[in-house]
Amino acid sequence: MLKFNNAVVTFAEVPSEVTLCFEITGCPIHCPDCHSKHLWEDIGDELKPVVLSSIIAKNPGITCVAFMGGDNSPEDIYTLAKWVKNNTELKVCWYSGTKLREDFSKYMEYFDFIKTGPYKKELGGLDSVTTNQRFYQVKYREVKAIGGGIIESYHYLEDITNKFWKDAGNNKDE
Description:
Layout: E1 3-10, E2 19-24, E3 45-46, H1 49-57, E4 64-68, H2 74-87, E5 91-95, E6 113-116, E7 134-144, E8 150-159
Parallel strand pairs: 2-4, 4-5, 5-6
Antiparallel strand pairs: 1-2, 1-3, 6-7, 7-8
C-alpha cells in the first residue's frame, strides 16, 4: 500500500511544469543526508486513484503530477501513473531514489519524466554538475517507412539533468 504525507504545488521539481508533488512515505532508501527523513516512516494517507483524482481536482492550473518516492511499492506508482495518463491531460514524473529500474521500460508510456539515484551530499542534488542523480525526459519515436507506414515505435530516455544547472558556467549545453 502506497501512502503519502503531503501534496504541494511546486515550480522547481520538473522543468517548465507546474507540478503537484506527492511526498510518498515508507522510503526504503534512507540516504544518510536526506532532508526529508520523516518520509522514511510508514505514515500518512493511502494514495489510490480516488484520492489522487480529488487532489488533482483541487489544484487547477497544474500541468504535471510527480510522485516523490515510492520505491517501496513501484507497482503502485506504475498503477497511479497509468491512471493519470488515462484520465487526465497531465504529465507524469517519478522521483525514484534508486538507479533506473529494470522493469521501468515496460511502463515508460505512462511517464513523461523520471529522476533516478539516491541523494549523496558530497555529489550534490540535481542542481550540481557533479550529481550522481539523473533527470530524464521520456520521449516517443516512430520510425516510418517510405509511404508512411509505421515500421516501429518506441519510448526512450533523454537525459535533461543539465536543465537544473542554473549557473551558466556549469551548463554543458553552452
